[in-house]
């Protein structure tokens, strides 16, 4: 800083000291003024009018009211949700019980079906055995009937033979011989 007019540079020490102090104060105040100007510039840039502030404040109040209303609705919906979750839990437990009961009943039915199927198979096997036995018995009976028919024919022929003319004229006598059933009859030659 330049020396003011009327002051001499080689003056007394106290005046110089006072001058130096005054110069330091002025420099610090100039620095402070510069800082305040920067703050004012920033404040001008960030300045909001009273009307704008009131409008923003009004919007904030409205948003707080809307938030409170939404919060109340959320609480109601949360209560409904908790109730629904309780119902779902009760229904889930009931469904689990019914599932267990159904599986138990199904297992019982399957067991009964297996038993009935086993009984059916045993009955079919027994029926097949009986049918096979009946067929064998029928074959035996048919064989016996055929034997009886053959024997009836032999008896019939013997009746005819024994009811024929007197003793001197024996012709074509049929008699039984030992051997198979088919070859039991043999005709003696005519005399």
Can you walk me through this structure?
The chain has 191 residues and is mainly alpha-helical. Helix content is 76%, strand content 3%. Strands 1-2 form a two-stranded antiparallel sheet.
Write the layout of secondary structure elements.
Blueprint: H1 13-45, H2 50-162, E1 174-176, E2 185-187
Antiparallel strand pairs: 1-2
| Helix content percent band | over 70%
Number of helices: 2
The largest sheet has its strands arranged as 1-2
Average pLDDT over all residues: 82
* SS strand fraction: under 5%
Low-confidence stretches: 172-191
Q: Given the helix and strand composition, which structural class is it? A: mainly alpha
Instruction: For the record, give the distance between the C-alpha atoms at the N and C termini, rounded to a whole number.
Output: 191 Å
Oligomer: single chain
Beta strand count: 2
Computed over alpha carbons, the radius of gyration is 69 Å
Query: What is the N-to-C order of secondary-structure elements (H for helix, E for strand)?
Result: HHEE
- Give the biggest beta sheet: 2 strands, antiparallel
Shape: rod-shaped
Coiled coil: 74-161
Keywords: Coiled coil
GO cellular component, one term: cytoplasm
Pfam families: SPATA24
